[in-house]
Write a structure and sequence with these properties.
Elements: E1 5-6, H1 15-19, E2 23-25, E3 47-52, E4 55-60, H2 71-82, E5 92-97, E6 101-103, H3 117-136, E7 141-145, E8 148-150, H4 152-159, E9 162-166, E10 170-172, H5 183-192, H6 195-204, E11 208-209, H7 210-216, E12 221-223, H8 228-240, H9 244-257, H10 262-278, H11 280-290
Parallel strand pairs: 1-2, 4-5, 5-7, 6-8, 7-9, 8-10, 9-12
Antiparallel strand pairs: 2-3, 3-4, 10-11
Helix pairs in contact: 2-3, 3-4, 4-5, 5-6, 9-10
Length: 299
């Protein structure tokens, strides 16, 4: 498998990730240089990534900071998302986390006046780049949430294409309580839930439960904690079994048509349907259906 050289970072993680023989992400991903070369010891990466059968799992693993989206975390996540993103061996990405907190949002120690405005700008720009990247990737990205997701952590969940959470999870944008309004999280949140729900969360900082998040559209599905990994993998395996070019075309078109007026959206998607029919896998799927057989995808 092309991704078989991928470096895995750390030994702990979700039980299903530890149990299976996952192919490691590429050795050059966080290379420390040629063997024998003396270099300063690098700090551990705040994310770990492994891939098998087209499914890449990225684990936020900075337990000491409650998986805060520090600049280092954001850059590590960005790297894991971008690595061989165009490879036909990659079909779907799952973002999960260690510990009881999915992500506590930005690292507030990076946002004091001990850091320069330029540094603060870099933090928020990089965060925005990561959130935009998730939607621009050619494969679906699934958030698997088991715990608390606040501020930019809630933004990360809202930015993913699909979000599956355990019934013990909760979500909040509490920045207003510490004098830092969650303006950037509000971008993703306000596009995932109704305006009045988003504004109540933003104005009060109070958390909502997983069931409330499901009701308002922040989540795709809520399951008991013991079923979270199984259900997330079921969805990921289903996506991984489908045509990558078709899924990629469909994802890109979905996000392109969303901000358009109705007429423009139908014009854009009608042309996409024509392009989809012309794809090799488009024809294979149609013919397989007519011939009552399983399709054989090119990718």
């Amino acid at each position: 498998m092309a991704a078989a050289g991928f470096r895995a970072f750390g030994a702990k993680g979700p039980a299903w990730l530890r149990r299976s023989q996952w192919a490691q992400l590429s050795a050059g991903f966080c290379s420390r240089g040629p063997a024998g070369a003396e270099r300063p010891e690098l700090p551990p990466r705040p994310t770990r990534a492994r891939q098998q059968d087209g499914i890449r799992n990225i684990v936020l693993s900075d337990l000491k900071k409650r998986n805060a989206l520090s600049l280092a975390m954001l850059r590590s996540l960005q790297s894991d998302l971008l690595h061989e993103a165009e490879s036909k061996d990659l079909r779907v990405i799952i973002i999960s986390a260690e510990g009881p907190v999915f992500s506590s949002g930005h690292d507030l120690k990076e946002l004091t006046d001990e850091r320069s405005p330029d540094y603060h700008t870099k933090v928020f720009q990089t965060c925005s780049e990561v959130m935009l990247l998730i939607q621009k990737l050619p494969v679906p990205v699934i958030a698997m949430v088991n715990g608390l997701a606040t501020a930019a952590g809630c933004q990360l969940v809202a930015s993913c294409d699909i979000a599956v959470a355990s019934d013990k999870s909760s979500f909040a944008t509490p920045g207003v309580n510490i004098g830092l309004f969650c303006s950037t999280p509000g971008v993703a949140l306000g596009r995932a839930v109704p305006r009045k729900v988003a504004l109540e969360m933003l104005f009060t900082g109070e958390p909502i439960s997983a069931q409330e998040a499901l009701l308002h559209g922040l989540l795709s599905k809520v399951v008991p904690e013991e079923q979270l990994e199984e259900e997330t993998m079921r969805i990921a395996k289903k996506i991984a079994s489908l045509s990558r070019p078709v899924v990629s075309l469909g994802k890109a078109t979905f996000y392109r048509q969303l901000p358009q007026d109705l007429q423009t959206a139908y014009h854009l998607t009608s042309q996409t349907m024509v392009d989809n029919v012309a794809l090799k896998d488009g024809q294979e799927g149609i013919k397989a259906f007519i011939q009552k057989r399983k399709p054989i995808w090119s990718q």
